[in-house]
Amino acid sequence: MNINATGCSLIDNLYSLVDFSSPGYRRWSAESGMKNGLNTGGLVFGEDLEESSGIPYNELLNQITGGKIRPEQNIGGPAVVAAIHMSQVLPRDGFSIGFYGCRGEDELGSLLEEKLKNFNMDISGYMTAEGKTPFTDVFSDPSYNNSNGERTFVNYIGAAGEIRGRDLPGTFFDADMLIFGGTALTPGLHDDLGYLLARAKAGNKITCVNTVYDFRNQKQNPSGQWPLVDSDDRFHLIDLLIADNEEAIKISGRNDKYSAAAWFEEKGVRSVIITHGSESIECCSDGHFFTEKGHFSMPVSEEAGRKMKTAPEDKADTTGCGDNFAGGVYASLASQLAGGNPSLREAVSFGAAAGGFAGLYCGGVFFEKYKGEKEEHLKPLIAAYKKQQGVEL
Ligand SMILES: Nc1ncnc2c1ncn2[C@@H]1O[C@H](COP(=O)(O)OP(=O)(O)OP(=O)(O)O)[C@@H](O)[C@H]1O
Ligand SMILES: [Mg+2]
What global pTM score does this model have? Predict the structure, then answer.
């Protein structure tokens, strides 16, 4: 089984202990009247900040952080984090995973590539383009708001904005299963998603899409729906769609995950999973791709939830729960496909374990000390999850 993934892959730079009341932060914040300024608790694009300030981002960063904080750097992005999860839990024998991303020719790009070499993924399709390697800067001020703490994000699309659907090499389409993850943060791919799905389906490939918050479309049209494919008759080209509650609501224009799932079903998406943090996971399947037919809800992992509550704050966070959830679903799907018709319930069980486990360590990617380490952590969570649902093991 060959799996190829593309979409959002970047470096997360975590700057802890940024003082949101410092002049350097306040000067570039929206609260001080800066157009496209830092949105405390939210995200802005680095490119927009540069444009409205007229100052290169590196200089702004120096002022915001005081220039003295060394960031902790991790791999992030819904496509690459899901692909890495698959590379960790799927056996090397019989499964190969390729990742097609885009980086700039800069230090951060070399760092990203170095880090990606730690995983059993083929990154020969990783492209280079003009501009910076995409990154998200996360500024954290634990003393903000009476010590409740807050985080502010800047996403720099950079080189990831240069790649169009048509730039993806033909080899991308050679795999059995094609994954498009977080393409809203790779705008050129996102705008071509309909075309990419059509090309994949013309070759009879399995198509999976996992979404990310679409800041670009939200900014352009705050009260409107977010576009996903360019025409309604292309929704049926998606075999499996994974979105979180907010994304599903914004794409569908409906009010909750239940009616959002129904909307996707009406549009022809074969199967849908809507995650909702610690709340239930809404699923729906038309019976063509997965064996189940109809709508059903599944719980999150109680065991992981319990452990999350007692995990020390500096050792665990919920970053990447959604991305690992998707990776868990995809990995289960890939292994099930080897043996016949896949079950959506089974795939969601693996997603719930992987998503829950991501809340028990820092960042989205778990760095294994040896092959199989993550799987060892997941096994008891999967068993507990099945028990929670009353499944006989
Ligand atoms: N508190 C929790 N307890 C148990 N499982 C959780 C909890 N929070 C998240 N998860 C698992 O992770 C899945 C995805 O979470 P969520 O819906 O928050 O994704 P998301 O919004 O895409 O997150 P992110 O984009 O920050 O990674 C949930 O469906 C669940 O399986
Ligand atoms: Mg997410």
Answer: 0.95
CA distance 200 to 213: 24
216 Cα distance to chain centroid: 16
Contact yes or no for 240/208 (Cβ under 8 A): yes
- Ligand 1 mutation target, pool 80, 209, 300, most atoms within 8 A of CB: 300
Does the Cβ of 301 fall within 6 Å of ligand 1? yes
Residue showing tokens 């190969």: 96
Instruction: Kindly give, in sequence order, each residue whose CB lies less than 8 Å from that of residue 22, ignoring residues fewer than 6 positions away.
Output: 66
290, 347 Cβ separation under 8 angstroms: yes
Residues 98 and 126: beta-carbon distance below 8 Å: no
Q: Which CATH class is domain 2-10+74-133+157-388?
A: alpha beta
* CA atoms of 255 and 263, how far apart (whole Å): 11
- Ligand 1, atom 7, lies closest to the CA of 278
Answer yes or no: is the C-beta of 276 below 6 A from any ligand 1 atom: yes
User: Is the C-beta atom of 43 inside 6 A of ligand 1?
Assistant: no
Q: Is the CB of 297 under 6 A from ligand 1?
A: no
In this structure, are residues 251 and 219 in contact, taking their beta carbons and an 8 Å threshold? no
Ligand 1 touching residue 76 (CB < 6 A): no
CB 321 within 8 A of CB 356: yes
Question: Where does the pLDDT of residue 266 fall: very low under 50, low under 70, confident under 90, or very high at 90 and above?
Answer: very high
* pLDDT tens track for 29-87: 999 999 999 999 999 999 999 999 999 999 999 999 999 889 999 999 999 999 999 99
Q: In what order do the strands lie in the sheet with 279-286?
A: 96-100, 2-7, 177-181, 206-210, 240-244, 271-276, 279-286, 293-298
Rounded Cα distance, 154 and 41, in Å: 11
Q: How many helices (H) and strands (E) does the chain have?
A: 15, 15
First to last CA, the chain: 27
- CA of 257: how far to CAs of 214, 245, 294, 334, 385, in Å? 17, 6, 15, 26, 22
Residue nearest to atom 28 of ligand 1 (CA): 277
What is the distance in A from the centroid of ligand 1 to the CA of 105? 34
